[in-house]
Design brief:
Number of helices: 15
Strand order of the largest sheet: 4-3-2-5-1-6-7-8
Shape: globular
Length: 443
């Protein structure tokens, strides 16, 4: 029997955020049954929305952003749940591509907090950080009567808290590669199996077909679930024009023939990400008889704004959050395409759990660096700037400067940049801190 409901503890927005951010310190990973209990007590808000569920190693956030922008262009009220946030936690919960207000965050938090207290009193485990974020998101979207939700998994797929969603309108699998191997498995096939755990009976799956090992696993799972599979191949995309800030390509698939797509990003990997999003929307458009026209879909891609992924924030200053092996490979590829004989300066930082020496080696071997500035993020998982400097000096003859303070490091990197390009990369935390720095400096 459920006990008396907990009294809502009145807090302000800042206190609510501090509580949510403190949760990882006293919880561990829970079974999905715990998430189900949490959502049941909240009235299963996830059942009141049409959900697109997205998993993958790289490109999840970008694909989600493209889809959200298409839905908004089509005049739909759309919610977007992604991670991580770069500056403010509200970025994780967006309605029509705007972060929710502090007031809505607080109201949603109060409802979730009350349910959590009741759960703990009744002997259930305290929800994890990600479970709370997911619950906050669903409560906020229900409160605002969001019709469509683009839902990004946190880690993996099969055991992710978001996988309690029972009947999504589509599932999407983006690029799959080796990352979080200690949790998801040490082969592409094992990781693909975990990611494909979001597939549901009879629900179409749209996927990046670049890796054939992953594709075999996805198709096997799709057959098991009776889910129609729509592969997106790189051969479907033919680049016709590119600049420092955009790419124009022609997309041809069974769903869209000879569509000219303008992507507002310079990174080649955004071609595949946008193609996955366009094909996914076409599947949904047909299945739900939305009757959204080609021009609206293409316009949605053009209008997409997604922070920290080869994002130009100042003239000649590009931020990129690539922080795993395949992310760094794509970063190197994009820098090579943009270099064009210009001076390349890099501002770099990393967190301890990443294989940062291998990242640095690949960057140095693939990019002709003119100068490097290494720094430290404000985080308890920092790698000392001097350690990063020593590693860079093993692999490059470029000038390497260690500046532990990020503000000072950015200024130093801007001085080094001169008329060339400055790339800030290595960690999404670094990208977030630079975004905050630039916001604070605005007149």
């Amino acid at each position: 029997k459920r006990k008396t409901k907990a009294k809502v503890k009145k807090v302000n927005y800042t206190e609510a955020v501090e509580y949510v951010l403190s949760v990882p310190k006293f919880t561990t990973k829970n079974k999905l049954e715990n998430t189900v209990e949490l959502m049941e007590r909240l009235g299963r808000p996830d059942r009141k929305m049409k959900i697109v569920h997205v998993a993958g190693t790289n490109g999840k956030g970008s694909v989600c952003a493209y889809l959200s922008s298409i839905f908004e262009s089509a005049g739909k009220k759309v919610g977007l749940f992604t991670s991580p946030h770069l500056v403010k936690i509200n970025e994780r919960f967006q309605i029509n591509n705007q972060p929710i207000s502090d007031e809505l965050f607080l109201k949603s938090y109060e409802k979730v907090w009350e349910v959590i207290q009741d759960m703990v009193k009744d002997g259930f485990y305290h929800p994890t950080y990600f479970e709370i974020l997911f619950a906050l998101c669903m409560v906020a979207f229900e409160r605002e009567q969001v019709e469509y939700v683009i839902l990004e998994t946190g880690l993996g797929g099969r055991l992710d808290a978001t996988n309690i969603v029972e009947h999504p309108i589509a599932t999407i699998l983006t690029s799959i590669s080796l990352d979080h191997t200690e949790i998801l498995g040490d082969t592409v096939e094992k990781i693909a199996w975990e990611k494909a755990g979001i597939l549901k009976k009879g629900v179409p799956v749209i996927y990046d077909a670049s890796d054939k090992k992953a594709e075999r696993v996805i198709l096997e799972k799709a057959e098991e679930m009776g889910a129609k599979a729509y592969p997106v191949e790189s051969a479907m995309c033919r680049i016709s024009e590119r600049t420092d800030e955009s790419i124009l390509y022609c997309l041809s698939s069974s769903l869209c023939r000879e569509w000219d797509i303008y992507v507002p990003y310079a990174a080649s990997y955004q071609v595949m990400n946008s193609a996955v999003a366009v094909n996914a929307f076409c599947v949904i458009n047909e299945a739900l008889h939305l009757e959204v026209d080609k021009e609206t879909i293409i316009s949605g891609i053009r209008k997409t704004r997604w922070q920290g992924r080869m994002e130009t924030v100042l003239p000649g200053v590009i931020l990129d959050g690539g922080h795993n092996a395949s992310g760094i490979q794509e970063f190197v590829k994009t820098v090579q395409e943009l270099e064009k004989g210009r001076k390349i300066t890099m501002l770099f930082s990393a967190v301890v759990e990443k294989n940062y020496e291998k990242m640095i080696q690949e960057i140095c071997e693939g990019v002709h660096l003119s100068s490097v500035v290494v720094t430290e993020i404000h985080n308890d998982r920092i790698v000392p700037a001097e350690e990063l400097k020593n590693i860079f000096e093993k692999y490059t003859d470029a000038k390497v400067t260690a500046v532990s303070d990020i503000d000072e490091a950015f200024d130093e990197a801007m001085r080094e940049k001169e008329e060339g390009i400055l790339f800030c990369a290595g960690s999404l935390y670094l990208v977030g801190e630079i975004k905050e720095l630039l916001q604070n400096r605005k007149p």
